[in-house]
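Predict the 3D structure for this chain.
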Amino acid sequence: MRTLQNLSHQLPNLHNALWPGLVGKGAPGSEPVIGFDAMLDFTARAAVGGIKFDGVDLFLFEPHVSIDSTDDQLKRIAAKVAKKDLVIGSLVAPIWAPTGGGSAMGTKSERAKFLGQIKKSCRIAKKFRDLGIRHYGIIRIDSADSAKNWETDPAGNTKKIISTFKEATKIAQAHGERLAAEGEICWAGMHGWKSMLQILEGVGMPENLGFQADLAHTYLYLLGHNAPKQALLKPRHTQAQFWNAYTHLTDALRPWTIDVHIAQNDGTVHGSGTHDKTGRHCLPNDPNGKLDIVKTAGYWLTENNRPLARFGHICWDGCMFSNQVMARRKTWNDILAVMIQVRDAHGQAW
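Done. Predicted structure below.
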């Protein structure tokens, strides 16, 4: 099993997300789910110049990892990951109603379900630590409700989300865990960068609640798709305008950022299931990609041209990739290659 001593000699370590095998899959009319073992194999087989992925990030949802997994089941999962010479990093808590949770701005019962899923996620996170397969990482959350519903009472709903997140953060703190709220335009109260910042500041517990920056999703913060008044760019903009806006955005949110997803975006929005009008993840070399992945990643991972030490790993998020695309070895080699470029440009030795 990998330890901190025999992981990569550079930070951040490079992870792949396994949840693209689940998100947007399995529903009527959708592609079938890609199982845990297959996603793990895709990750383990990737190699570029002798460099491989260091680990995986997981969604705590069946059929990958049940939120109600027994200790023995978690041991078997840890053993599978270790057998591939990988570790586990961040975990996605299943806080949405269809996965057993509830809205963070909903009824007392809904909010209790949200918090119940946080507690269960923290228990699994600790178990993986105890098993020696998890040395770093966060638990990813959002408000589990839509931007449209939030608009019925912006002030009141934001207050409820802050209250729920505070209680969730206390649970995480008690378990020695950190939560990261992903900046994604489909989620209530988190659909604009100013709104996201208001929630982070409202909770005011930066040691245990931070921000998860996804390059694909935060790009849409600039365009204000679900929060036009918070837009920093017009659809037609120059490169100079883009970098000025990106600097403004990252200067505001980087102090809160504790987890980073590397991704590409083509500037369009895509919805599936509870994900309404959210950022489209593209392959790193997509001809329609709008992002210079390596350069934009640096705005989150460094400050004053120096790498930030708080990132133990970075993760590639390929949500909404087709099963055919994910079955190709070239897909993961190309992804790993750009992850290596990001680390070479903005990482640090340890």
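The CA atoms of residues 89 and 137 lie 5 Å apart.
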